[in-house]
Amino acid sequence: MQSHKEEIKLFLTQNFIDILLISETQFTNKNYVSIPRYKLYFTSHPDGTAHQGTAILIKETIENYELLKYEEDSIQATSIKVK
To answer: Residue 53: CB partners within 8 Å, gap ≥ 6?
Structure first.
């Protein structure tokens, strides 16, 4: 996903996206992206390597909080609650 950061920023801006759901992020606790004006929540693979994973990008102006992550070998899920 790091290689697509500029493409994602452009997509968010051009399409007025408030919340973006992302699969196959390949994030780890040391390797993830940051997008200005968006909060990132992500769940990486439990073995700590860069494969699988999910993420949610949400505008900082939207009130929200993260729910429990589901982090198993076969599936990873990121959840938030939006007020």
So the answer is: 23, 24, 25, 26, 27, 42, 43, 44, 45, 76
Q: Residue 6: name the closest of 34, 41, 39, 40 by CA.
A: 34
pLDDT digits (tens, 9 = 90+) for 52-62: 889 999 999 99
Residue for token pair 């699988």: 52
Q: Which residue in the block uniquely carries the two structure tokens 């500029």?
A: 6
Which residues of 1-83 form beta strands (DSSP E)? 19-23, 38-43, 54-59, 64-66, 70-71, 76-77, 80-82
* Owner of token pair 């994602």: 8
In tens, the pLDDT along 8-45 reads 999 999 999 999 999 988 887 777 888 999 999 998 88
